[in-house]
Amino acid sequence: MSLTKKLTLAASAAALTLGVASVANAETTSLRIQTHFSQETLSGKMAGEFIKDVTAMSGGDIQIEMFYSGAVVKAAETFDAAVTGILDCDMTGGAYQTGKNPAFQFAGDLNGGYANPYQQMAWLLHGDGYASLNKLYNQYDMEFVGWWIPGPESLVSTRPIRGVDDFKNWKFRSPPGMITNIFENLGASPIVMDFNEIFTALETGIIDGADAANLTNNIGLGLYDIGKHTNYPGFHSMPADHLACNKAVWDAMPSAHQAILKVGMQALALKNTSINEVENAKNSVKMAEAGLNMYEWAPEESAKYREAVQSAWGEFATTPEAKELLGSHLDFLRGIGAMK
Predict the structure, then answer these.
(1) What DSSP string describes 136-151?
(2) Are residues 124 and 255 in the same domain?
(3) Are residues 227 and 302 both part of a single domain?
(4) Is residue 23 one of the residues assigned to a domain?
(5) Domain of 193, in residue numbers
(6) How far is it, in rounded angstroms, from Cα 31 to Cα 273?
(7) What single-letter DSSP state applies at residue 86?
(8) How far is CA 283 from CA 111, 218, 222, 292, in A?
(9) Which whole number is the average pLDDT over 66-82?
């Protein structure tokens, strides 16, 4: 056999061996994730974009099956479903878990603390956000992966909400957490109910209004078909929806897949915040023309709300974890001159 033929055969064998090794070393990650948003809402569509980005960046090695509108379990039960293995990841929000520890309130919404989503993302990326959140999440066998923040929310109401006095005896759907304390102190009657029960409760008159989402997502949910009053721009709440995964599932992923998911969430955060800002502005014009009553609160009315919020922060931070997480937010806000 000639030397050239021997070298050719050797090269072919090496290539075959390398190919087999590559197949053997190929790692895939399959995730079952639930979000409380429907596919029709802007946020639901953005979740779909996140899946496409992750699939593309991983070359198809990360496969995501997304369950929309709380299809597997109720929104507030998604976290536990991920912990127990019914799902792999939770794409709802930390505030749903305040019953476990009030610290989860400060893992989702500081209720008036941050002026805009970019400030809040700055704490996550440039403060000690990731470490602080995973110090909490890891205690509950979950890994915090990232946030996406649509921006300040707008309330939905079947009656005017021009200022604090209009909250007296106002029955409204509230998410769990500190927001119930704030609105109770302002004279309202919050009723905690699942995200997907809001429309029917409004339609049947069980509630007078709802704290659900921002202007654009409220439109997508059909809430303004019933409630003809809202506040815009919003001020009372700016929740961050999270991606959090079962800790064992997360730890078993290749580090490259972990990085792709984190970067994918950061890309989602920027796209989501910016598109919501654009769509809210466009929709505010359209909805005003369509007859929706939109109230921009006077500074003195907003000040009454902020006073109630700052009081509630201290009242709600009743565990060491909650005090530590709240302290991290406040140190950051003071450090950038956004709070005294």
Answers:
(1) HHGGGTEEEEEEE---
(2) yes
(3) yes
(4) no
(5) 156-237+293-335
(6) 25
(7) S
(8) 24, 11, 13, 11
(9) 96
